[in-house]
Design goal:
The structure is a single chain. By secondary structure, the protein is α/β, with parallel strands linked by helices. It has one domain: Rossmann fold, CATH 3.40.50. Helices cover 37% and strands 17% of the residues. It is built from 6 helices and 5 strands. Strands 2-1-3-4-5 form a 5-stranded parallel sheet, with helices on both faces. Helix 1 links the parallel strand 1 and strand 2. The longest helix has 17 residues. The relative contact order is 0.19. The mean pLDDT is 94. Bound molecules: flavin mononucleotide. Flavin mononucleotide binds next to helix 1 and helix 4.
């Protein structure tokens, strides 16, 4: 049986890629076996009671989580160690990181008193080429001359996964 469930919601794939990177670290460093679940298939999601550790991730579009991922936060996580992350282009830029972490991550978690994560992080994102015209409607990014359409940081993701693995496996 697996140790960790990573349940994520994505529109363009970045959040799933991040889940895969996290799984690799948990396995290599802590021998933790993970199941990855894309919440677009919400109904068949594995039963939470089978896992001690849960990681929830969502992509951000116009400031919002995917609908199913936000719904997933309503589950009962009693007795489990939970970690939460987002993939957000604002979070990948120094100028807008704090804004993204507060508005897209902390404020969302705060709405769910049943979710008390041991770790949270806001990672950068990737905007597909076909979506570039749409993203320019987000004025805040136009003001950052160095803005990258792929501002994910694999090293940051792997370091966070290491920390999460440590917090999951340490006795307390
Ligand atoms: C139409 C559109 C709207 C977006 N809105 C936001 C936003 O409000 N805030 C943000 O940080 N990133 C925004 N992004 C960037 C996404 O967060 C980024 O593409 C991320 O990787 C999405 O995760 P996903 O690939 O898992 O869906 C937007 C991207 C698109 C294409």
């Amino acid at each position: 049986m697996s140790d960790v469930l990573i349940a994520f919601g994505t529109r363009y794939g970045a959040t799933g890629d991040t889940a895969a990177a996290i799984v690799a670290v948990l396995k290599k460093k802590y021998k933790l076996v993970s199941d990855i679940w894309d919440l677009k298939d919400y109904r068949s999601c594995p039963d939470l009671s089978d896992y001690k550790y849960v990681i929830i991730g969502s992509g951000i579009k116009y400031g919002k989580w995917t609908e199913n991922t936000e719904k997933y936060l309503e589950n009962d996580f009693t007795g489990k160690k939970v970690a939460v992350y987002i993939s957000s282009s604002y979070a990948g830029e120094t100028e807008t990181y704090d804004y993204a972490k507060k508005n897209f991550l902390e404020n969302v978690i705060a709405k769910h008193s049943n979710v008390n994560p041991i770790a949270t992080e806001a990672f950068g994102g990737r905007i597909p080429l076909t979506q570039i015209p749409k993203i320019w409607t987000l004025r805040i990014l136009q003001r950052i001359p160095t803005f990258q359409k792929d501002n994910r940081d694999l090293e940051k993701i792997e370091k966070w996964a290491e920390r999460v693995g440590k917090l999951f496996t340490e006795e307390n």
